[in-house]
Amino acid sequence: MNNIGKKIKEARKQKALSQEELADTAKVSLRTIQRIETNQNEPRGKTLKLICEALQLDIEDLGVYGKEHDNSYHIILHLSVLSMIVMPLGNIILPIIIWLPKKNKIIGLNKLGLNLLNFQITWTLFTFGVIILATILKMLHYGGSTLLLYTVVALYAFNCMLAIISAIRLKNRYEGSLYLPLIKFIK
To answer: Which of 22, 23, 94, 100 is most exposed by smallest CB count within 10 Å?
Structure first.
């Protein structure tokens, strides 16, 4: 039997809920919560979904259904964005190559990969838009093209720093991704 009961108990305590409060919120019996937390029963289906909703958890956060926890894989995914330095569109291609085979096997990787890729696609479109605008302004001999090129350098630096800071945060066990996509290209 998994340690689902232990994880549910820890999550309940982090939310400062009693077993009774969790049972009321999840609309399950108190005895069910007690049995789950002592690993006498393993929650399945609707019960597991109700408890996770009450605790504001993703089911995958409990490590059920054969998923493993691999923080180093999350860090590698973050740092794969840096491939844009040596390869155009590397910030999208390499993360896809790393994300796809393990997205359903590692806890939290699917959500992280989706957020990271959607952010990178948005960033790439915006950055290439600025490059095209700078090129057009330069061809038309308008001022400001140099400022736009400095903006591109700043955008690249920002994206690199975001990847490095995210990896450091994960290494230091901080939860939550810094990648907040504006547009969801991949769902």
So the answer is: 100
